[in-house]
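Notebook entry, structure prediction.
Reason for the run: the old model in the group folder had no record of what sequence produced it. Starting over properly, with the input documented here first.
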Amino acid sequence: MSIVERRDSNDVISPGSLVEVRDETWLVTSIDVTDDGPLFEVRGVSEFVEGTTASFYGNIDEVVVRRPEDTRVVTDSSPRYRSARLWLEATLRKSPLPIAHEGLTVAPLMLADDLPYQREAVETALDAERLRPRLLIADAVGLGKTLEIGMILSELIRRGRGRRILIVCPRHVLEQMQHEMWSRFAIPFVRLDSEGVQEVKQKLPATRNPFSYFEKVIVSMDTLKQDRFVHDLRHHRWDAVVIDESHNVTNQATQNNQLARVLAPNTDALILASATPHNGNNASFAQLISLLEPTAVTPEGEIVPEAVPRLMMRRHRYSDSVKDVVGEKWAPRKDPELLLVSPSTEETAVADEIASTWTHPPKGMGSPTSGSGAKLFPWTLAKAFLSSPVALRETVRTRLASLARKAGVDDVAGIPHSSSLAAERDALLRLDALNDACLPEGSPRSGKYKSLLDLLRKKGVAKKSPERVVVFAERVGTLGWLREHLIEDLGLNADQVDVLHGGLTDTEQQAVVESFKQSTSPLRVLVTGDVASEGVNLHQQCHELVHFDIPWSLIRIEQRNGRIDRYGQTIPPQITALLLNLEDVHGFKGDLRVLSRLLEREREAHTVLGDAASLMGKYDGDLEEKELVAVLQGAKDLDAVLPEVQDLDPDDDPFLAALLAGDHLKPGAGRTGHRASTDDPSRTGLFTTDADFLIAGLTEIYGEPGRPPENGGVSLQDERADGLISFAPSPDLQQRLRFLPQSYLKDRRVLERVRLTPDRRTAESRLRAALNDRTGTSWPDTHYLGPQHPVLDWISDRSLASLGRGEIFAVAGTVREPWVILQGSLVNRRGQTIASQLLGVADVDGTLHAIPHSSPAALFGEIGLGPDTIGVPVPESHEYDGLVARAVARARDHLEHDLAGTASADAERRAATWIADMDRWEKAAENRTGQSALFRTTKHVLEIERDLAVEMLPDRSFVRPLLVVVPAPNRK
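New structure, fully documented this time:
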């Protein structure tokens, strides 16, 4: 039986179809294949259910779609055929593009700079040769991975593959990610942080899965790991899942990895993002790659070499595809400054004690440490000392408490002198007393603190100055100590210095980050730990960063610097590091050289590679620190551990080779590069702009939309000449808007008045102005009216409801004989569109000719339907009902012989390729005896993917009449 001959009730339904269920009319938004039959997700169109959403099982409810042959033709008597144009525009907007359409359609029209290297990432994710959209975005810090994610999601939504989306990211960037997705891409996510979870609990019954209630959710990994959520996730499918900072899920023994393993098989699209995706362990990297494509890792656990460039994108600031396009939007950083600080007398005494007793004791004597970690603890003391006196005090006293527990006494004073722990206790007490002298009442006796104070004053930080600085330090104790003294010594108010660290709640962390972005915020100095080194944007109001202590890791230095050195930074960022000058202290002279070299190498790697992690080849901050400790101990050579960039050999490091190959692709590598133009085959030309579509829709619905609501309008203010449109949302629109970010709704009072701009420059200026808002919100007061804005979706639904069930309009146009415009689509077993085509079927002397068109704009232009059409009512339109029935039969015949054959063959070829890859993997696994956890997981996932490959095959086609066009009265 041919595809188009299937006529079961559910086989003529696809996304975009109007159906009748329980005596109401609904628009089908998506179809899921389940064990219980097809599940239709719908939105109400008829008056009683208008604007509501529901789900119906085809095997339980009677889901009826009117046969296209029975379509009735009605006359459009509205001005300039406004009703017909609105209905056609809405129908085509609601019709998903084919899932294999690779061209960019809506992403370049969103509120983000259209950069070629970001387009390339989107096109790679949409590659039709993939079973599912899967990609690791491994761009270096600062390139805009969040924007690439937003672009990919926008395109998936346009293809009907992005209704249910989950974003998982670090908790301190939840609001930042939510802000970017809504402000720039008009994708509304419900934020489930600690406050959001409480709101959900209040709205939903305890037994209700929150992920089935909210279509688009953003949540932190820490929150998602809660037992109640893990249970819900196992029974929920997503269209797309994004895992930001995905290097946190590579360790197979962690809950993070287990959660990722739950999510990966249950989502169509999977986007992983990390500037540091490799931790130096190929097995861990294989974990990441296997999440994307199970067969990319062999049964032996080896990564298939050609899979990495196919599944991973990696560019950096100085990549060929980046350096020439970022322009003034990314000012090159100034040369970093290393300030050698003279220690105080008290600090020198502490340094002498650490060197002579702990790190470099006289020959023949060892350090007083014993037990596990004895070799590393002296360097822990040295690192704490180089951070701050407070950090050292915290380290010493923690160790003393540990000694007391080991000895089984309440206080270290109770440790007997005969104990093996006594020597270490005495040395620690002696060091603690020396260190206490650096922390007297009043101003600290710390050369580094005094240097920081002088530096901040020199940079103009003051109570009434707008200058801002980010100060990084590792220890939480150091952060609080710095804040306390900076407030007093700089004469600042308490709210002008704040701290950010992992001990704060997620909402507290987000509040600090958002405040620092605001020019009107009193915050002048942000003292932060490395919690802010992942994903946080701090460049909006700041171009100065100070390392109060220097991390013993290239990765952490690079991550810190990337908070202000990133795309969007228009002022050359200045990086400054403070380091105690201890050349006169025996033992510390070499340490000084190591830390100085660390900063030099980070700068070199940043400039040449854009990736400091590749220099040491460890790809993990803790492993890098161990290497440096080995150098400090004299166990390894400094130049071997910290080589110069030109000494790197990609052949020695497969991951480095993959990184370098990512920007200099060889022929046949699988990527064709970015396209220059935007290709949206659904643009109709029926309205000049999205704003025109919105205004026409409001006029159609309300007649005179400028009237106040109590008089039947929406108080529309159409000021498009100034780039502004505003109106009072109707109750049904308010219901939809309640799923927008809650802080946005509250801060901008959106449920009272919607303020939009179709002009990108105006939208960008309002987004920048939000950073200067005196109310403290970073949400723009006027939102960009992009092609996927929820308001346009609402207008589309209202426009679809303007026609009765099974009706289409008749209009007069520039044709010589009557035409029927139809849409033919081929869908797979998941209800996703594989191919779609717009046809004009012309009745020439009783013979029907099917004329396919490349785009709606071309077709409507040919028949003379557009914004300037005069619009003459067609008399006796019902006489064309029979023509529609004949045209449907002709269109089906065309689909069978022209569209379905080619599209089906292409889809079947791709499915066969995917299945062949699975067959090869399973054949290679047949004789394997040892089975790792990854091996067992892959076996399970391949069973799911085999079913998926079958579901992606063509399943049914349908024809939808859209319009009848008759010759205009004066047409000869």
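Summary: The chain is about 40% helix and 15% strand.
The old model has been moved to the deprecated folder.
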